[in-house]
Amino acid sequence: MTVERRVDHQQIRANQAFTITLLALAFVLDAPWLAAFTAAVMLMSAAVPSLGLFSRVYRHLLLPAGLLRPRVIADNPEPHRFAQLVGGTVVALGTVALAAGLTVPGWGLVGLVIALASLNLFAGWCAGCTLYYWLHRLGVPGFDRAPVEVRR
Hints:
The protein is mainly alpha-helical. It has helices at residues 9-28, 32-47, 53-62, 77-99, 103-123, 127-137; strands at 6-8, 72-74. The chain has a two-stranded antiparallel sheet.
């Protein structure tokens, strides 16, 4: 008997909204430090989900205040963590480029993450999750989870 795994997709949406907002502010204010902060939060969330700042704000402020309601569905958390890792890595690389004076590639990488996070938030398509499942299909070690079958 397999245990059905579940993920709160409202929490993922909240994470995406925080990511988009902070990275867009970083660009508008020309504040690479804010992009670096966002990258650090994303990477921490991927490494230790329970310590993720955006998730903690969601669980401890937004839910209790009634501003958002959970949407828990059958899903694997690993692809979402992988997406967070990829996004955080790309933003970190963008921050390094900005520190090196490479403004166009640096903000370009940050913009890529804003665009992909927006696709996830507004269209429900997770590029990192898709990549995870492609790697699973190719048999790459560490990508052990198959997509969850939706029962009707």
